[in-house]
Amino acid sequence: MRRFCAALLFIAILTGCDNTLTIDLGSFDVDSPRHSIFQYPDYQVEMPTVNLEQAFRESNWLGPKRSGSCVHASMIMLFRWQGREDLATLWRQTYADGEWAENLAAKFDAEGVRYAYTQGQRDVSFLEWACDTRRGCGVTVKGGVHMVNLVYLDDERAGLLDNNNIGEIKWVPRETFLSEWFNSDSWAVTPVYAPPPPLPFGRGREN
Q1: What distance in Å separates the CA atoms of residue 46 and residue 28, rounded to the nearest whole number?
Q2: What is the pTM of this model?
Q3: 45 assigned to some structural domain
Q4: In terms of C-beta density within 10 A (0-12 exposed, 13-18 middle, 19 or more buried), how is residue 183 classed?
């Protein structure tokens, strides 16, 4: 399973970055009078990177076994952000209660979900890849007993969307977040589909 996931992640890094960041505008003669040169104004990075509208955020809930469904709530939000409302609906109707890495991977495999994950490796590059490709990822906190969504990460801070409090993004220093994640089994997971393009101009809402 881990070999398969590692291979998938490697492919996603190669193809995801190119497909996400490269726009083919076609070829044309720049000296032709039929074409004008446009100067686009500078714009700031959308913040948070995963700028999920309030209506699409999913609160944690108790499953049949009376345990929280934080992992599933986190995945539902990522499915919606990545344009897979069909999978979000399936997940909300089918899965609940607590979860762990291998078991979630088995569920993803059974449902044909494309995904990538890391566990126990303290792989910060995975977090950076997930945010740089605008997918975000679910990350473990509180010693591994809770999962939230990492929706932003830069050199100074991290933005977290907690399914126990979907009304706001929690901003914490980068090193504070990483220390918490390292001490929580450093599990991070994300579906691998296409997120929406960033807002073209201006800064996104920070709530």
Answers
A1: 31
A2: 0.77
A3: no
A4: middle
For residue 45, which of 207, 201, 174 has the smallest C-alpha distance? 201
Low-confidence ranges of the chain (pLDDT < 50): 1-30, 32-38, 40, 201-207
Selection from 97, 195, 101, 89 nearest residue 139 by Cα: 101
Domain range for 187 is: 59-192
Q: Find residue 5's DSSP bridge partners.
A: none
Tokens representing 177?
């977040």
Tokens of 206: 């920070």
Asked if residue 41 has a cis previous peptide bond (ω within 30° of 0), the answer is: no
Query: In this structure, is residue 11 part of a structural domain?
Result: no
User: The domain spanning residue 139 has which CATH number?
Assistant: 3.90.70.10
User: What pLDDT is stored for residue 207 in this prediction?
Assistant: 44
CA angle 18, 197, 154 (to 5 degrees): 75
